[in-house]
Write a structure and sequence with these properties.
Blueprint (H helix, E strand, L loop, with lengths): L2 H10 L1 H16 L4 H6 L4 E5 L3 E7 L8 E6 L2 E15 L4 E15 L10 E5 L2 E7 L16
Antiparallel strand pairs: 1-2, 2-7, 3-4, 4-5, 6-7
Length: about 150
């Protein structure tokens, strides 16, 4: 069979090939690159406000219990582990699938953070961490550096 004939066959019966490869496509591809799914970490926005920093982490589909937030020294670490299992039973087969995902993001914080007042809230798929800070005198004077 030539490539042209095979192409015509797949155009006439695309569902046949889709159904044949469906289990592999769902497991390895699912509409995205499999490696991209494994290596992805949530996007983070950090906003500096007058008296606090606001960290917003986009993580839809999780529960607040999935998150672990640690502060060690000036290092803030946000991590998550999520495990799911799915089972389908039909007359002649049983299909079980397991999914495990995790991520960890760490940030070095400035010295002016009030560590005992840090608050975290998860709503609408976004983890929001408020990091209260004290006013720090900023040295706004210009400095010239000589090139040697």
């Amino acid at each position: 069979m030539s490539t042209r004939e095979l192409s015509k066959l797949t155009e006439r019966a695309p569902h046949l090939f889709d159904n044949f490869f469906k289990p592999w496509n769902e497991w390895f591809n699912n509409g995205t690159n499999f490696l991209d799914r494994i290596a992805s970490v949530p996007s983070v926005n950090i906003t500096e406000q007058k008296d606090a920093y606001l960290v917003s982490l986009a993580a839809p589909g999780l529960k607040k219990e999935d998150f672990k937030i640690d502060m060690e020294g000036n290092m803030l670490t946000i991590s998550c582990e999520n495990e799911e299992s799915k089972e389908e039973k039909e007359e002649k087969f049983t299909r079980k699938e397991y999914s495990y995902s995790s991520f960890s993001r760490s940030f070095t914080l400035p010295d002016n953070i009030k560590k005992e007042q840090i608050e975290a809230k998860y709503e609408d798929g976004v983890l929001k961490i408020t990091l209260p800070s004290t006013e720090v005198m900023k040295n706004n004077s210009a400095t010239k550096i000589a090139v040697k």
